[in-house]
Amino acid sequence: QSIPTVAAAANVRFALDKIQQQFEQDTGKQVRISYGSSGQLMQQIKHGAPFEIFLSANIDYAQKIVDAKLAPPPAKIYAIGRLAIMHNKHVKLPLSNNLAYLKQELQQGKIQRFAIANPDHAPYGARAKDVLQAIGVWQQIQPKLLYGENVAQAAQFALSNASQGGIVALSLTKAKGFSEKADAVAIDAKLHPKLTQAMVLLNNASDTAKAFYAYLQSPKAQQTLLDFGFDLPK
Amino acid sequence: MVEPFQGLVCQINTTTPIFIEAEFDCRNGEITALLGVSGAGKTTLLKILAGLIKPQQGEIHLNQRTWFNSQCHLHLTPQQRHIGYVPQHFGLFEHQTALENVISGLNHLPKAERHARANDWLEMVGLATEQHKRPPQLSGGQRQRIALARALAREPDLLLLDEPFSAVDPQTRKQLHLQLLKLKSRIHCPVIMVTHNMREAQLLADHLVLMNNGRILQQGTTDEVISQPNSITAAHLLGNQNVVYAKVISQDQSKQTTQIQLGSHQFCLPDPQVRHIGERVGCLLPNELNVLSNSAPIAITLDIHCHYQDGQYRQIMATIVGDHTPLTLHSMPELLRKTESSQAVWLLTPTDITLL
Amino acid sequence: MVEPFQGLVCQINTTTPIFIEAEFDCRNGEITALLGVSGAGKTTLLKILAGLIKPQQGEIHLNQRTWFNSQCHLHLTPQQRHIGYVPQHFGLFEHQTALENVISGLNHLPKAERHARANDWLEMVGLATEQHKRPPQLSGGQRQRIALARALAREPDLLLLDEPFSAVDPQTRKQLHLQLLKLKSRIHCPVIMVTHNMREAQLLADHLVLMNNGRILQQGTTDEVISQPNSITAAHLLGNQNVVYAKVISQDQSKQTTQIQLGSHQFCLPDPQVRHIGERVGCLLPNELNVLSNSAPIAITLDIHCHYQDGQYRQIMATIVGDHTPLTLHSMPELLRKTESSQAVWLLTPTDITLL
Amino acid sequence: MDWQALLLSIKLSVITTLILTPISILVARALAFNQFRGKAWVEALAMTPLILPPTVIGYYLLVGFGQQSWLGQTLQTVLGTPIVFHFSGLVLASLLVNIPFALQPIQRAFEAIPDDVRDAAACCGLNRWQSLWKVEIPLVWPGVLTAIVLCFSHVLGEFGVVLMIGGNIAGETKTLSIAIYDKVQAFDFDAAGIMSLILLIFAVCTLAFTTHLTKKIGVNRG
Amino acid sequence: MDWQALLLSIKLSVITTLILTPISILVARALAFNQFRGKAWVEALAMTPLILPPTVIGYYLLVGFGQQSWLGQTLQTVLGTPIVFHFSGLVLASLLVNIPFALQPIQRAFEAIPDDVRDAAACCGLNRWQSLWKVEIPLVWPGVLTAIVLCFSHVLGEFGVVLMIGGNIAGETKTLSIAIYDKVQAFDFDAAGIMSLILLIFAVCTLAFTTHLTKKIGVNRG
Ligand SMILES: Nc1ncnc2c1ncn2[C@@H]1O[C@H](COP(=O)(O)OP(=O)(O)OP(=O)(O)O)[C@@H](O)[C@H]1O
Ligand SMILES: Nc1ncnc2c1ncn2[C@@H]1O[C@H](COP(=O)(O)OP(=O)(O)OP(=O)(O)O)[C@@H](O)[C@H]1O
Ligand code: MOO
Ligand SMILES: [Mg+2]
Ligand SMILES: [Mg+2]
């Protein structure tokens, strides 16, 4: 019996790692997880990547898999994502949940590099772009933007003090190795459209995959998601 | 009943990979030396005989068996021809010992016999004690002898030697010459040997074939060719000869004589060929400064540039007054003492000089 | 007043890059030939003289000027020595024309004069018409001459020639020999010339230096060294000599004679040296088969393996009965006719044979 | 340290090398001993992976062997698994990318065999296969060894193509090189550091070994 | 077609080649003409980037030149900008990665100069610089040309390292190779296809040219 592979958006990385651990403890079954940007993963699935569960960072990409008849409907919403603004502890700039300082710092030329995920194929990147547009700095900040391949790489870029921070998934900032090095503040959810994160169980899913899919909807898993800063769907 | 010809008959004609046109034969047990400047096509001709290169036209037969015939599209591979070949650079298998190298050539024997046969031949070329060394550990002369042993051990129908003594010092070369001379009586196949060395050819070969630009320039028994080169190129190929250029002054068709200018000298020579006035012709001059008689009708004044003792004789480098081609001559030492000035008079009869 | 020594004085001793120990001198205008087997260290010695390699100990002086002195830590660079050097493989600059190559050596002249000087020397070596060709378009002999012209045009204080006629055909070689002989009177510097060719050394050199394993084996005037090699190695180096090994049977210290066994012959020879019984000694034999007199006390029976006409003389390859070292001998043709059987008797006097 | 990734990388290296070496020997021999029209182009093509960006190679593999392509679908039916995002895809990619590393040293070695040796082999009566086994392969062996070492270490470090057609599946397509990238993204610089160090040491040793080998061969031949 | 990325890639290639070529000439000459202890190790080290995974190189650059490192901070003070996520970082990475491509052909070319030629130059009275300019450089020129072509095209295709330390900034660190990757990730296969085709054609032509050049030199020398 081979171990099923889960394709997951990079933003759920640390939360899902923990859920995977719990799942293995509780059931004795194993899964393995590949992280990437939702767009990249969706495209890999379309090209035949042997994933059995797909956790997207939005609902569109999950729906596209369903539309392509690669997974049975419906796309199941498993969490509502939140963004955070963050920077390395050495960057001595204030953070706020409405990004009030960012605009100011930009004007003062204190921002040279600012990381977000690639908005072309990472939903967190797209939402970060929405935020920057909402506060009216998109034009100004665009030349300074570092595009992470996915939101985790964006976080890694933002973590480097070669940049003055970035907008990443709130869940990533809750990771252990992260909080020691960086400061982060959750961004007001009103600044961007809702990050409705949906998942699908692909056609070829094995029993273990189905079990993990179910486990993801268990209270224990949901608690972990909450711990990592996600909101749960109503 | 006439015995059928036993030996190699070759008559080929090709333009790829280079132009080669050759017609000659070689009896079993005889050695034919192939002479020519670098690039004359000697190696190519040998490879054609070996079957390594396929010529375009012609025939090759050995002991009445056809090896190649362009009209019947017959072309035996080297493997089918059963030859012994010592390539120009030996072609030893460097990862094998001397013994293994020789054994490699003995595919045609039953496995059990190969070892003994190889051993015999290594002994024959004086390398029994070196049989477990690999080529890189052996000297040039020793390598050469392994290649020779490998070719001979096959007891081939045709032996091809490409400058087989080129890479060895004079002492070893002498030794190898002696060995080949001794083997000559034991080898019952034709031997074709490429060489650049006139002395070697004289020593070993029964026949000479002179090649130039892929063509056979002259062929015949060794003595014949050496004493009568038929062209300037042939004379040059034969190396030690003194060839100088002269200018035709006039010709007397009835007497069959030609008046030539050689340096600042003019004289008349017997000459059956028709020449143009003013034409440059090659003169083959002798190698000896022979001034015993006073009766010789031609007197050539030489500038002597240097002379040194070589065994019993005195070796001289000289030029004809009015010409700058260097001549090498030898003479008895007492003769030169008389002419220790930097000039000497060389007395010749018209028959001493050959016009080419 | 004594003239100070004008020329090269070299006394060096080194173990890197290889072992070299040499002490010799060469007067201005004289040619010293360096002979030795491949790997003897000839090129290395030349490079030391050129300043390309720094030896560990010793001194080099030219015309009383010090070029190298290990004690004063003095070592002039090649640039400072002002030499002419023709490397073993010419060392031409392939991207430059013949003329530019020669001009490259004329850094010491004002720019305006270089072109004319280079032209002169190209003419001198007979390459005026080829001056705009690059080395790859020229024949071996022509390249050789460019290298020679480049070295000579510098009007150097020391001329170093490393096998300068190695890569050319015999005809061109003769021509170059003649040219160097002619130039000899115009060159006012010492010339050190490496060669493998005995004839070349005899022809051109005033002195010979024989090298082996980095050491000088023997030196002296050309005739001296050739007529009296002081060891077997030296005799071998001198090439054409007939050296065979004999065994010491007994020695008479009072008469200074040694009884030796040569092949299956035994005889007594004058010999001042002390020998051990049973010791192998080299015997230097003459090159002539000279059987005119019957009075000679030593008669050696020869196996004659082959003989051929070489000019006026007959060239013979033979071995002494009971020995297998090949000897090359020449004789008058009429002598050999008498002994056309495969054996001949060689009559010698004890002074004809030198023990080494 | 991600042992699974290391094992996978080694497995990929071994398989690639095992497949590529014998093929390269035959192809290199053909290229070394035959002259034909357009040979320079064939050789250039064989060298292309050396300077072609991995993303371009990845792109073409994705398009050529992805499920949307005819070839990919055929192969999937035949093999039962898709090629891309699968171990077999990595093998295919590694084979492709390493052609120059395998072919070059072996071809140079074949070219270094003197004509005389091959002629002598033929004239000794050895047929083509005997000549190949008994004479040529022993002589080109150092070149083959260099090819093996280069291929092996290069596969171990392959990144761009694997990233594009691998899918980062642990135990299947997550090679050591990808694992390092992944660890960096997970802010686990220590783990990435250890893996990098291992690969660095391996690379330097490999090269010191091959350089040494090449020198030794040079000396032997010289 | 992403013209900005193409231009950036070309700019990176040109700058890398311009810096690397003269340095390589001097270093290659030193390596070719001098024997010293540990030379095999130096040569192996110089070859390392050829087989070292780009992620490892990327990792070390990230750690070594990131602002947390002493070196990175010093460089930032000197240059005024950080090295990572900056064009200068790509230049640095390209220089590092391309050392073997620049060094190898030039070193081989220097090694091919016969001793006799250099000796003759010294004995003709040419000093070290005259010898370098008038004799050696003209002779190694084909090697230098090969190095330039290889470097240039290899920089054009560099991917892994740029992905890790570039940050994908349009016009600054988003090279053609990254752009292709990006386009593939964003399902824009057509754009990726065009860019890939351009690089493919460029690579094949480059190699045909250098192969041809190498052959010609081989023939001239042979
Ligand atoms: N396969 C080939 N294709 C084209 N040209 C060739 C080939 N083989 C040899 N040649 C050329 O043909 C000419 C004759 O070559 P060959 O080797 O027969 O000369 P050779 O007489 O043996 O000379 P040498 O005395 O130098 O060995 C040379 O100019 C050589 O370059
Ligand atoms: N730089 C060096 N380091 C170590 N060994 C060297 C060096 N140069 C030459 N040798 C070795 O020293 C020996 C003598 O070399 P050299 O070139 O002086 O010989 P040679 O007498 O000129 O021989 P040839 O007649 O073949 O030219 C050879 O064995 C050679 O391999
Ligand atoms: O799909 Mo992501 O989590 O925005 O990279
Ligand atoms: Mg030949
Ligand atoms: Mg030498």
TrEMBL record, chains B, C:
Residues 3-238 form the ABC transporter domain. The keyword Membrane does not apply. It comes from the Bacteria. Pfam families: ABC_tran. Keywords: ATP-binding, Nucleotide-binding, Transport. The keyword Repeat does not apply. GO terms for molecular function: ATP binding; ATP hydrolysis activity. PANTHER family: SPERMIDINE/PUTRESCINE IMPORT ATP-BINDING PROTEIN POTA (PTHR42781), SPERMIDINE_PUTRESCINE IMPORT ATP-BINDING PROTEIN POTA (PTHR42781:SF4). This is ATP-binding cassette domain-containing protein. It comes from Parashewanella curva.
TrEMBL record, chains D, E:
It comes from the Bacteria. Keywords: Cell inner membrane, Cell membrane, Membrane, Molybdenum, Transmembrane, Transmembrane helix, Transport. This is Molybdenum transport system permease. It comes from Parashewanella curva. CDD domains: TM_PBP2. GO terms for cellular component: plasma membrane. The keyword Membrane applies. GO terms for molecular function: molybdate ion transmembrane transporter activity. It is found in: Cell inner membrane; Cell membrane.
